[in-house]
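User: Structure with nicotinamide-adenine-dinucleotide, tokens only please.
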Amino acid sequence: RGKRAFIAGVADDNGYGWAIAKALAAAGAEILVGTWVPALNIFETSLRRGKFDESRKLPDGSLMDIVKVYPLDAVYDSPEDVPEDVKSNKRYAGSSNWTVKEVAESVKNDFGSIDILVHSLANGPEVTKPLLETSRRGYLAAISASSYSYVSLLQHFLPIMNPGGATISLTYIASERAIPGYGGGMSSAKAALESDTRVLAFEAGRKGKIRVNTISAGPLGSRAAKAIGFIEKMIEYSYVNAPLQKELLADEVGNTAAFLVSPLASAITGSTVYVDNGLNTMGLAI
Ligand code: NAD
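Assistant:
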């Protein structure tokens, strides 16, 4: 049987989540996605109307099949955690069972188990503010959506992951080097995510024979990145200063993800793997 993957954080065809889904589909995996509740409607409508058909094309000419789209808000672990104003919000009230615990239960009921878990989501409401001006609420929201969301996903999905399976997340170099502009506690959230990768690799390795890695990706003009405000500058900086002076394609991150969750990477766990045209290795670029 082919492998089954659940990819959290796909809401259009521009981001890393979509590229990872494609690379896994091309390698023969069955694709399930988790889509942020407020983005669900437009994503499903676009998918149904064929808006993504061009970008669903796989190398063999077939179209990637997304077997099921689950509404998900990874900021909430179970229904008890959802505040009233969110519950009654029009965009949320139209969907159900979108807390992490409920999504894991639904996937279990629908498919029994998965082999691959991908976390490709982040959110920092104050990302455009310098850390020095970030509120406690904004900082904690960044950590909740971008770091704890991964702990929670793995916590709830591990029991339905087949031994030998693997999980990955996406991180950014702002965790270890100062990147002015990547604010609101997002740099802190990525530092937590990378540290958690090591601890979770130990725990999930011992508990379920599951590997845990994170990809430190270079800049991509995704929807989330455009919200930060200076993504074009980051892309240009990388183009000028990285060892490999070429555009970084989302598919290059997708391919690395496919490798990392495959048996080819069977001894790799707890690692932060750079897919950034080598930019992270530079001190002074000329
Ligand atoms: P993206 O917009 O394609 O993906 C982010 C997704 O997160 C969106 O689909 C959004 O709907 C979803 N999301 C936000 N809050 C959520 C929540 N509470 N519950 C569920 N889903 C939620 O953008 P992307 O840049 O491809 O981001 C994917 C990952 O890649 C993120 O972790 C990001 O930090 C990381 N990354 C991006 C870059 C870059 O330059 N784009 C660089 C390095 C790392």
